[in-house]
Write a structure and sequence with these properties.
CATH topology of the domain at 9-83 and 157-253: Rossmann fold
Order of helices and strands: EEEHEEHEHHHEHEHEEHH
CATH class of the domain at 9-83 and 157-253: Alpha Beta
Mean pLDDT: 92
Shape: globular
CATH superfamily of the domain at 9-83 and 157-253: P-loop containing nucleotide triphosphate hydrolases
Strand content: 15-25%
CATH architecture of the domain at 9-83 and 157-253: 3-Layer(aba) Sandwich
Distance between the termini: 56 Å
Radius of gyration: 19 Å
Low-confidence stretches: none
Number of strands: 10
Bound molecules: adenosine-5'-triphosphate, magnesium ion
Largest sheet: 6 strands, mixed
Helix content: 25-40%
């Protein structure tokens, strides 16, 4: 019998403190290849710190982070990050570079051919190719986030980390882009970890939801389990908002 494929991302007993604050507190977590995991929790619960340790923007005080069974310390950080596309809330595009140059930067750093890739990547995120020559400040917020996603996917990383990547967008754009992300995740066979404040977004895009509270993962459940009332008190407190909205909408429709 073939041995099971190693977990794409694995954290064992990982902690990170800032002074007296345990930002991440003894977290163990396995993210299976191809899964779409949402990480939710109150502000300050440690979500970004967790993501940053996977991408080696932070180093754990204790514990171990691996990708495909390989230890985070095994390679120089830039090489480690080549397997990871990372998008955060403030798109982080270089303001003095065109859309095309922004999208191509990872390819250039990796010494890879740019060729038609910029056009293909714009297609991938549903942006017109005409935008290639624009500067970031001549784009809408939603267009900038799409460019940031295209840039993150340019080198075809198997892992996509999104930290509040949709947080600054209007609800309609946000909904459309969340849907697109789900499609891209499936089509490109990505392993995706999405940090969001929005439980409804997590329920509708992810196949597994982790709830963080004070540096710990306090729930690990499917959307169906959370909707069925499982996952514990912290998870259910976060469920109150989408539940209340759904009830009010249903009442309006009556
Ligand atoms: N560089 C830092 N220096 C000091 N404290 C930090 C630093 N980064 C994070 N923290 C603290 O660690 C805790 C976790 O922060 P983190 O940014 O991971 O939370 P978060 O869940 O992403 O919050 P948010 O939803 O507001 O983005 C917080 O108490 C925060 O103040
Ligand atoms: Mg954060």
């Amino acid at each position: 019998m073939p041995s099971p494929a190693p977990a794409m991302i694995d954290l064992t007993d990982v902690s990170r403190r800032y002074g007296s604050v345990a930002a991440v507190d003894r977290v163990s977590l396995t993210v299976a290849r191809g899964s779409f995991v949402a990480l939710v929790g109150a502000s300050g619960s440690g979500k970004s710190t967790l993501l940053r340790m996977i991408n080696r923007l932070e180093t754990p005080d204790t514990g171990r982070v691996t990708i495909d069974g390989e230890d985070a310390g095994a390679r120089p950080a830039p090489e480690w990050r080549r397997r990871i596309g990372y998008v955060f809330q403030q798109h982080g595009l270089f303001p003095h570079m065109t859309v095309a140059a922004n999208i191509a930067i990872g390819l250039r750093i990796a010494g890879r051919q740019v060729g038609d890739r910029v056009g293909e990547l714009l297609d991938l995120v549903d942006l017109p190719r005409e935008l290639a020559g624009r500067m970031p400040d001549a784009l809408s917020g939603g267009q900038r986030q799409r460019v940031a996603i295209a840039r993150a996917l340019a080198t075809e990383p198997p892992i996509l980390l999104l930290d509040e990547a949709l947080g600054a967008l209007d609800p309609v754009t946000r909904d459309a882009l969340a849907g697109r992300l789900g499609e891209l995740h499936a089509r490109l066979g990505l392993t995706t970890l999405l940090v969001t404040h929005d439980m409804a977004e997590a329920l509708l895009t992810a196949d597994r939801i982790l709830v963080m509270d004070q540096g710990r993962i306090v729930a690990d459940a499917t959307p169906a389990e959370l909707v069925a009332g499982q996952g514990g008190a912290v998870a259910q407190a976060l469920m109150a908002v989408p539940r209340h909205q759904a009830e009010r909408l249903a009442a309006l429709a009556r």
